């Protein structure tokens, strides 16, 4: 039982569900009195489906421009470029339609617009490293809406992961108003999402719940909500695996991602799975949605003595009461057909030292429930996951 702490509530107006994305987005634009809506969208959804065209038609004259060339790992350079395009278009609302990269890009674009950032170096005056607890950004005049097509769950977070291509480091930028003003859930939009991305992003969403549950900074409310999210995600993802066109299974999966992200909404710090995952993605190019299945089982074993009660509850939520949580999670991701070891995603022991040197300074690695005393501890964890 949590003995002391603080529960935070996010700067988000609403989550909209049960309506087509095009109708819901137009309703939100009207509610917010937005006259010039700038879309940041998945290229696949824009060029291979009619989903984005439905949105443009619904917005009608409110739509001013669409950008669809999103980098896989959101970059400073692209954020500055897209912010210039949005400012030139006179955008008063930015909307992301797609996966985590689209949503992170929208978050950082509104900050680049606010501060007139025009290139990679324009972000340098805004330090966001360990020890920075107050955002250096001004409150943005332009807000954004997220319409997710994956289960990543980053839309429920007031932070963005942005890669500095000069150093190949993924950095965290945050401000309470980087949280989307609204999130729209439409399972029909997700049927175009590749299965590996859908399942992998679902494990990333579970990661949000697991790290919040295991965090010493969690709260009684966040614990119960994220456990419900993990259970709901497990059911929805398994049903989607069996029947990919089952919209109710996809809707259930979206609800699970929403619940599992409750710790993010409450600003419970994540742990080493997120921190090391940021290094694997930003520096070594591992797809974001493969980071959790290759790291989490070993991290659960590393953290076990510090999080035994949380792990007992986690195993039950994963449908395996009495089983070791690490084994239950590994078995779940195996059934989904996801990689289970670092070697499966091209990360060998020759990279462990570099990963540990970067990760040891990451704010989430430093917030891990079992502290890492040195880089050698991180290397030992990576060897467990090899």
From TrEMBL:
Domain Alcohol dehydrogenase iron-type/glycerol dehydrogenase GldA: 14-187
Signal peptide per UniProt: none
Keyword Oxidoreductase attributed: yes
Keywords on record: Oxidoreductase
Pfam assignment, any one: ADH_Fe_C
Domain annotation Fe-containing alcohol dehydrogenase-like C-terminal: ranges: 205-385
Alphabetized GO MF terms: alcohol dehydrogenase (NAD+) activity; metal ion binding
Family: Belongs to the iron-containing alcohol dehydrogenase family.
Name this polypeptide is given: Alcohol dehydrogenase
Source organism (scientific name): Bradyrhizobium canariense
